[in-house]
Automatic annotation (TrEMBL):
Function statement: Catalyzes the hydrolytic cleavage of the carbon-nitrogen bond in imidazolone-5-propanoate to yield N-formimidoyl-L-glutamate. It is the third step in the universal histidine degradation pathway.
HAMAP family: HutI
Main location, first listed in the record: cytoplasm
Residues annotated to bind Zn(2+): 78, 80, 248, 322
Positions that bind 4-imidazolone-5-propanoate: 87, 150, 183, 251, 327
Name the UniProt record assigns to this protein: Imidazolonepropionase
Gene name tied to this protein: hutI
Coiled-coil ranges from the UniProt annotation: none
Species this protein is from: Flavobacterium cauense R2A-7
EC number: 3.5.2.7
Reactions catalysed according to its record: 4-imidazolone-5-propanoate + H2O = N-formimidoyl-L-glutamate
Comment on bound cofactor: Binds 1 zinc or iron ion per subunit.
Length: 411
């Protein structure tokens, strides 16, 4: 199957060579070609350039993108798409004045989702989750990370990871799986943290490794959840099973968690609503990608990740949704990009880099995703006619996507 996309008004994020990520001032540069063509062959990007050089050969399909922008599909490096039921009652409770902590103390929050997940069959969880996956694909996401973490039991965690595996098998979207057994302490382990961590390390991890169900390991490193020392135990154990760390950290408090993550060579540190000068110093020169989740800040009214300060310090930054039933019931990366511009003062160029190439780095797929580069996966968004790509974050409430191609297939 050979597809030609011709007359592209703006072809964005064009990189001649594979780069892993962009940092600091580089984030302001979004290479593009005006009046471009692009050829897809064998589900990969075979060629692209200006229309003057467009080859005059036969194609199986020709798409005329006159007036339209083409860019790589979004890479959403942090989601909890697999869950059972929802938490819309807590949403209304919060409107009526209850805090996140008060809701958690009443048996709400993560433990509420865990209760629902453990009471739901694998098939039903799959059916509920695939609806969300299909929705984000239509919204332009071509690669996604999905976490476990609503099981909090051996069976529950395995069930979630098997659902993620099945989604990866049945859909063209690239999926990476992360084991998040350390999302919260189940009630029966509230006073005995080490026993639950033993369960994670001695019971869950070996089974997950045996069935090859996860690529990464995660923990909720936060006051009242997993301490720095407890998270270090989990990162070390994960490493022994070949799972690199990607950690929830600095959402509500800064307790030197980032230093521990960098020490253990975490691939990413995610949330970062609260970031100290020391945290920024530690991240400089590390291989760890900071990941901001602005939809979460928006939904539960907490501070936004200080993007300007971090980029000024030379750091890279990735953007992801945190799609989950409690704090971010949305997987819309277009909204994330717009919110990063509107609330975090990122430029459109920085936000698009953060949501494509840097997102790809945060799940270890920069070699195949995140830019328009020959040999990379043919995963791209074709927009509706736009005056310029600035319209993507500017017209934040409009659906500006015309077509989505994932791994060479029209969605
Ligand atoms: Zn999360």
């Amino acid at each position: 199957m050979k597809i030609l996309i011709k007359n592209i008004k703006e072809l964005l994020q064009v990189r001649e060579n594979t780069i892993a990520k962009v940092s600091g001032a580089e984030m302001a540069i979004l290479p593009k070609i005006d009046n471009a063509f692009l050829i897809i062959e064998n589900n990969m990007i075979a060629d692209f350039g200006t229309m003057i050089d467009c080859p005059d050969t036969a194609f199986d399909q020709v798409i005329d993108a006159a007036g339209k922008t083409v860019l790589p599909t979004w890479v959403d490096s942090h989601t909890h798409i697999v869950y059972a039921g929802n938490r819309e009652q807590e949403f209304v409770d919060r409107i009526n004045g209850l805090s996140y902590e008060e809701i958690a103390n009443r048996g709400g929050g993560i433990l509420n989702s865990a209760k629902k997940l453990n009471a739901t069959s694998e098939e039903e969880i799959y059916n509920q989750s695939k609806v969300r996956l299909e929705e984000v694909m239509q919204q332009g996401t071509g690669a996604v990370e999905i976490k476990s973490g609503y099981g909090l039991t051996v069976e529950g965690e395995l069930k979630m990871l098997r659902v993620i595996k099945k989604l990866a098998e049945n859909y063209p979207i690239k999926i990476k799986a992360t084991f998040l057994g350390a999302h919260a302490f189940p009630v029966e382990y509230k006073e005995n943290h080490s026993a639950y961590i033993d369960l994670i390390i001695n019971e869950m991890l070996p089974k997950i490794a045996e069935e090859k169900l996860a690529d990464y390991i995660d923990a909720f490193l936060e006051t009242g959840y997993f301490s720095v020392e407890e998270t270090e135990r989990i990162m070390e154990a994960g490493k022994q099973f070949g799972l690199t760390a990607k950690i929830h950290v600095n959402q509500f408090t800064a307790i030197n968690g980032i230093a521990a993550c960098v020490k253990h060579e975490a691939l990413s540190v995610d949330h970062l609503e609260i970031v100290t000068d020391e945290d920024i110093e530690i991240l400089k020169g590390s291989k760890t990608m900071p990941v901001a989740l602005p939809s979460c800040s928006y939904f539960i009214s907490i501070p936004y990740t200080p993007a300007r300060k971090m980029i000024a310090a030379g750091l890279p930054l990735a953007l992801a949704t945190d799609f989950n039933p409690g704090t971010t019931p949305s997987g819309n990366m277009n909204f994330v990009v717009a919110t990063a511009c509107i609330k975090m003062k990122m430029t459109p160029e920085e936000a698009i880099n953060a949501a494509t190439i840097n997102g790809a780095y945060a799940i270890g797929i920069s070699e195949t995703h995140g830019s328009i580069t020959k040999g990379k996966s043919a995963s791209m968004i074709i927009t509706k006619p736009l005056t310029s790509y600035y319209q993507l974050p500017y017209a934040f409430g409009s659906n500006l996507i015309d077509q989505v191609i994932i791994e060479g297939k029209l969605i």
